[in-house]
Amino acid sequence: MKILFKAAFFLFILFLVGCKKDKKVTIPPTITYSSPSGGQALSYIYDAITHKYHLPINVVARVTDPVHLASIMVSLTDLNHTPLQAPVSVPITSADFVFNIMYDVTDFRLQGSYLIQITADDGTSASSSFQPITIIESPTLWTGYCVNAKSNPLNIARYDSLQNQSFLSVTLTNFNGMKFSGYNQQLFINGSGASQSFQAFNLNHNMQDYADGLPGGQTDYTLIYTDGNKSYVGFSSVHPDSTGIINSYLSSGLASTSYRYRATNTAYPYRFIATSTNNVAIYKVALPNNQDVLVNFGQFGFPVTTVALPVKINVVSVLQKSVDSLYIFGNDSNQQATAYIYTFSGGISASPLSGVGSLGKLLSAVSINNEYVILSTKNGVYACTGTAINTTAVLPAAQKLAYQPKLNVLVAASGLNLNAYKIVTNAGITSFNPFTKMNLTFADSIVDFEVITNK
After folding, report:
1. Which of 5, 52, 237, 318 has its CA 20 to 30 A from that of 214?
2. Pairing mode, if any, of strands 440-441 and 417-426?
């Protein structure tokens, strides 16, 4: 009996020890932040070598576990706890220690509220702790222009603010327009004809990132557009399966959404805009006396609504007016400016803008905001506020306009000159103040240009 009692007592002690040990193992690590402080506002630092901003964050925290630590990871997430870049592993020195690392945020386009996440694992259980931070938007730097000149349209040159010139290492046999994506520092260059493909050119590395080849039956590139991130390219084709297609690409060159309109084998896209609610393309119908077609693709790449333009128009620019409306500017059959506001609520409806026709042939148009548009004709540069056209020229005529919203700068290509203007509104009156630092003069007329910024 005494032996049985001792054995039972020994087993009871083992049970208590085992429970105590298991209890220790199942207690997850604890995490205590010292830096950054909760809600701390952090600013980017400029790297003169990469010409980009980055954000080094000093992360200091104590991590404690009753037994041992297997791994500690630090990462940046959005408010939904979605990681925004790869985590960093912290070297472990003990089961209870304070670490101090510099976590570098390399995406210089972030701004607003985010979370620093520390995840500690002891091999059995893990815990995560989130520290809220605020990232202040990095400044937008204006680094120069990319310019295509009239006498040598196959060369694209890059100019800085001092008019120093460097040609891009890009091979062109045809040129049909270009667009700049500051988000990935890519210049999208459109070809023309079967010998020249569309390509994305990396301005940081002076090399091609990717290109869109010429599939069978494709005859010409007709459209180039960017939403500031992705590229969009459209083409005409004699092949029924590839008619009326607009392809979009991620910065890596991987295919994204394709927009398809196959109502007729003779329609091809030549204008496009992507908004938060509508993706709208203008199609040229290559049949005599046929009006161009506006196609709203919604968000999924297939036509939601389609309507012919009210009269025969060659569309020059499609600009967003509101969440559910667009400006469409172009020229009529008499080569005189014409404009409409298209609204998409409950179908597509159009209302004309009066007074545009007296301005002459339209060459370019850009939106400053939802109610203020600047347009250029052969006679001068004019302003449109809402539905009212000011027929008094505010600037000399320009073959192309470009507006950089983060800089609040309008750039006009006028003959041999690129002229930059700061837009100032005071007591309801808008003026255009010359920004002489970025005004350049060339020996040849400018066919096309893009304003180049760091993001």
Report:
1. 318
2. antiparallel
